[in-house]
Each structure stands twice: as C-alpha cells, then as structure tokens.
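Budget justification note: compute hours in this period were largely spent on complex prediction jobs such as the one shown. Inputs:
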Amino acid sequence: QKEVEQDPGPLSVPEGAIVSLNCTYSNSAFQYFMWYRQYSRKGPELLMYTYSSGNKEDGRFTAQVDKSSKYISLFIRDSQPSDSATYLCAMSGLRTGTASKLTFGTGTRLQVTL
Amino acid sequence: DAGVIQSPRHEVTEMGQEVTLRCKPISGHDYLFWYRQTMMRGLELLIYFNNNVPIDDSGMPEDRFSAKMPNASFSTLKIQPSEPRDSAVYFCASSHRDRESKKAFFGQGTRLTVV
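Corresponding output:
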C-alpha cells in the first residue's frame, strides 16, 4: 500500500462548478500538507500549504486537513478552464531530516469544460 | 529570481549511453531534490541534498544512478549506462531551510527518452 493515495481521475466538471480533490495517507508522522498544480509538460507549482489540521483559504481555493481520518482535501470554487491541470497532494514529516522530504500522491487530472 | 533551471529540457539517447541532467537551484536555497515522474509511479524522490551534502539517496533505483552537488548553485544527476526503463521526466526542486523548507519549487523538468 502506498503512503499516499490519490484518485487519478480524470475528473471533468463544467465551468463554475465546485471541485473537490482528495488524498488519504497512512503515515501518522506527516505534519505538513501541500497541494501542487501541474500543467501539461510543466513542473509542479505550489498552490496551498498547511501545517497540521484545519482549513486554509486562498481566493477560490480551500485546503482542509483532517489528521484524525488521515484525509486531506482541496476545494476549488467557481472553477475556470484555466484550472484544468493535474493536482498533486504532497506531505512531509516533522522530524529533522524527514521534514524536507516530500511524499507525493500520483495526482488527479482535472478538466474544466466551457 | 529565474527559478529552478534545468537542462536539457529534452534528451533522447540510445540504450547504454551516459546521460547527465543538470540543475541550478534558486539562489539561497539550502535543499535540493531530484525527482522522477512517470505515469505509473507518479513523482518519486530519488535523492536530496542539504547544504550540498547528500542526505537521503534511498530513492536512487540502482547504482547506475549517481548525483552530485559540487557547490550551492549546481547539481547533476547521471545515469550510466542508461536503459529504456529510465525514460521519464526528471525534476529538480529546491527549498529554503526552516519550517518553510517544505515549500519546494520545481524546475521545468528534463524529459528523458532512452531508445
């Protein structure tokens, strides 16, 4: 079993819809949770960053972390065609040495249609 | 800052040849990571450096893979000899020390094809 599980999709939604992307994980040592967005033939770019449990909002994006369930989510409101990309969740632990080592999900491909 | 710079962007080579991928991290960053991305396995960490010193190379698949960081502004990932199963996109990423070090910034990647 992988440490981080993510549905690969593809997920297709109409413009303006609310999108929900999710990851589950098994390693209770993970304390830092990130979402990266990757456009086709580009490198991943950091979208959201949270520490421990809770919610974080940035514009149309909201990241949620539920450590008790080992479940994280990314919500995109009023989705736009420009949001079409692959979304990767990433996590890392707290201990020195592991803190900088990211473990990624395989990514969910999102398509927002007009 | 120009961000993380990788070269070449694309590399096509024949099986058995040596391949060298290059990376220039963001100035001032202390950590440098090499990742490999494939459709089947997603993004996998190969090795990472802290202050030019290799910290964890447990993700390096075989002895055919080696990585160096001779100074704070340059790193290489070498595959010798290359095999078709090494075909993938290789990403370099860098980050800064302290708690923000989890924010890794990625280069554009090198798409390697071994035929």
